[in-house]
Amino acid sequence: MATTASILIVDDDVGLLRLVEKALKREGFATSTAGSGQEAIAWLLADVGRSVPFIIITGQGDQRVAVDMMKRGALDYLVKDVQFIEFVPTVVGRALIQVEKDKRLAFAEKQAQQLEARFRATVESAPAAMLMVDQAGSIVLMNAETERLFGYRREELLGQKVELLIPERLRSTHSGLRTQYFASPGVRRMGDRRDLFGLRKDGSEFPIEIGLNPVRTDEGMSVISAIVDISERSLGAQ
Fold first, then answer.
1. 3-54: per-residue pLDDT in tens?
2. Cβ(75)–Cβ(98) under 8 Å?
3. Which residue intervals of the chain bear CATH 3.30.450.20?
4. Are strands 205-217 and 220-229 parallel, antiparallel or unpaired?
């Protein structure tokens, strides 16, 4: 198994050190050796930024030591019995596969975090009031314009039902409409051919237009609502 990873073998028994090194090199692994912990530390300090996964090979015949080390981060362990040398390449290969999987997972998580950060920044800087609402009707994300438009602080709205922002006379029908939307989500205007109104914290109502855009998250389907105050337009039409 060819690999670009360098395997550091640490053992104070020179004979065993060479046997393990030979077994790994035979399978195509690049190796370095250290005869003591001090040498190993010097090797590691040569590249402080290096990620160092490790495998425990114990000569005590007591798996409790190995299990304890795995709890501390070891990827695997071997007991130094008469056949352990032949298993070393397999265990090392398995560990390297796990390391690569962990790297890919970490990279994917970083990408997801960056994407979420960009998404939140886009929502926050939008000129319209923006709300993300989950299928239960709870507000999970909002921007500064929502605070300004409705008169609530962010901490007052997050986790609350979106019906808090709807006049009481319209709330009874809204949950049913929300259920219908999530049954067939899509990008569209809300309330076509119906007048829509928002309710501020001070109890005042104002006419609004709402655009709906479904978005899938780790928690399931949600909807982004873009809310625009059309009070001036409504006054002009009168």
1. 566 788 888 888 888 888 888 888 888 888 888 878 877 777 666 555 677 8
2. yes
3. 126-237
4. antiparallel
Residues in the chain: 238
Pairing of strands 139-142, 188-189: unpaired
- DSSP letter at 87? H
- Domain 126-237 annotated CATH 3.30.200.20: no
Q: Is 217 helix (H, G, I), strand (E, B) or coil?
A: strand
Tell me what the pLDDT averaged over the chain comes to.
85
Q: 168-176: long-range contacts at Cβ-Cβ below 8 A with a sequence spacing of 24 or more?
A: 168/199, 170/197, 175/137
Residues 6+ apart with CB under 8 A from 175: 137, 163
Q: Residues near 14 by Cβ (< 8 Å), separated by ≥ 6?
A: 35
Q: Where in the chain is CATH 3.40.50.2300?
A: 6-117
| The pLDDT of residue 223 | 95
According to CATH, the topology of domain 6-117 is: Rossmann fold (3.40.50)
* pLDDT tens for each residue of 99-123: 889 889 988 889 888 988 898 898 9
Question: CA 137 → CA 38, 144, 178, 219, distances in Å?
Answer: 60, 20, 8, 13
Quote the crossing angle between the two packed helices 14-26 and 84-125, to the nearest 10°.
70
Query: 87 — phi, psi (to 5°)?
Result: -90, -15
